[in-house]
Model the fold of this input.
Amino acid sequence: MYVAVKGGERAIDNAHAFLAEERRGDVSVPELSVDQIREQLKLAVNRVMAEGSLFDPDLAALAIKQARGDLIEAVFLIRAYRTTLPRLGASKPIDTSAMACVRRISATFKDAPGGQVLGPTFDYTHRLLDFKLLAEGEAPQAARAPAMPAAVPHIADFLNRDGLIEQDTANDTTPPDLTREPMELPASRALRLQAITRGDEGFILSMAYSTQRGYGRTHAFVGELRIGTVPVEMDIPELGFAIQIGEIEVTECETVNQFKGSKTEPPQFTRGYGLVFGQSERKAIAMSLVDRALRWKELGEDNSGAPAQDEEFVLMHADNIQATGFLEHIKLPHYVDFQAELEMVRHLRAEATREAAE
Amino acid sequence: MSLAPQAMTGGFADAPVQSARAFRAALDALSRPGRIVAVEGVQPPAPLSVAAGVLLLTLADGTTPVHLAGAFDCAVLRDWITFHCGAPLVGSDAATFAVGDWSALHPVGRFAIGRADYPDRSATLIVELDHLTAAGARLTGPGIADVAHLSLPDIAAFQHNRALFPLGFDTFLTCGDRLAGLPRSTRVEAV
Amino acid sequence: MPEPQPNPTARQIWMGVLARCRPDRLAALMPDLAAHVVLRPAEVGAVMVRGRVGAVGSPFNLGEMSVTRCSVRLDDGAVGHGYVQGRDKGHARRAAVLDALMQTTQAPDLQATVLDVLIAEEAAGRQARAEKAASTRVEFFTLVRGEDK
Done:
């Protein structure tokens, strides 16, 4: 059976108009500007940039406004927009040791060279609602102190010197890109990191939390967490040399994890790594825990069957745009599918009733 | 390093609109094998034809390696492609697009034909011809209502390619500002 | 480890300043554009930003950033390229014209009236942020414990 429906078009147009009016809300309240969102809801903007996988604060702010504050919808808008952009190239890997840090802490070394810098953190707030913010017109002032040297070394470098932490060496292989080629499993660590850094913050957080509660435990400490800006450099073919094409804010987290050793590796510390656009501290820490949990195979650890150790489970369910697309499609018309199911249930019931009667 | 001055001219003046039109023309040509379409919008340096230049600027970018075969592998053309589409220039086995005349592209067995799970990971050949007419080899298959004819530079190579289906390379034939498409699905016979 | 940075050339420095500066500041400092032909029209695109696994290992794709580029040629033949962060086509074109002019005799004048101003403003902004961060630096004191006597 085929059911044709007419008249949906006007309803859809009117739904769009209703949506636009609801987005604006009470017109006696001043309209929110994109600049206000970018400056005053910066962490929401950062999340949309990280999961939208496009660093552009103005666009992320616009997406949040258009999506009425629904951040996953805003991420969807950014993902859709980025597909329209020509790819001009790939940057050189950013050098996070050259970061101009506004925050840099270590849970493992209190005397970390370069110092512990708290930055603009919620950590020591009391989580009491501040009713003073109800009043407008405040322009708070931060304190100042003599600035420190611009770049501070990574803390893992110090453990490296004693050979107590696994070594990693630089290379310049071209990493796989899941925005260009479908993800293939098993995935390299580079591909896993790309999938996790653009994954849903809530999902990555829950996966990381599950490892802390014992599902694939990795005994993680935050070796270092840093937030700040780094320049982005790209080789320009027509120039024959690299130039800086801008500057981005990122959050980087490196965990130090206990490792009892394996058949091939001596007991030492191992690492998990998180790197996320913007000031996205929770995501960066969670990312580094999930990264470490997924490394069980290359480190020769046991697979305890924990969800966070299951690459297919983590990588295939981390993307909130894929997830919401598949989830929400079931609300769209499935009249024909359902009609078939209805026919079948009626048929089975009729059969069951007849058998009972016999 | 700096690019030759003539390498920095001759690209699309209005890339979004012109490349969209060119893409539509390339799609028409490839989905109707044997149909010859005219394209415009670029002035590439010699020996590249307008049609081959349009195809490269429309289809190639930094993620699609290009192989320049024979006389096409010259400094000014390398610079022109680098400046206008940023495509890396590579050997034949790594190419997503390969450009040249037929004798330089041959043997075509060295180009990628895709994999069983990803048949699309194959090369597209852009074959520059001295003449391109709707006469010669007999073409049948998807996109051809009855039969079409095209002045192909070879028969056996395209027959062998068809036998690899769903693997195989796809081909554009270019001459001046005109082009035709020959997808891997087309059956080719001598007349 | 990341490769050591060789000292940037003067052109690398000014192109970087132009990439990072605000479009409205550049337009205010250089309102007029010298006569030029456009070689490659201003184009908004994306650059895939890469990081390194564990900050030092293999590259991985972190996500894209928006970048706009433009290439121009002045009447005297100087070619300029602009690559700027964001989606402002006017910014990219202005940066390209300035890049070309910096290869002409006008360079010292433009260095003083445009680039040095942008550099100073950027440095002041960085300094302010660094000072605020420094004010949140923790000073630990290790207390002597009894059994160590």
Remarks:
- The radius of gyration of chain B is 16 Å.
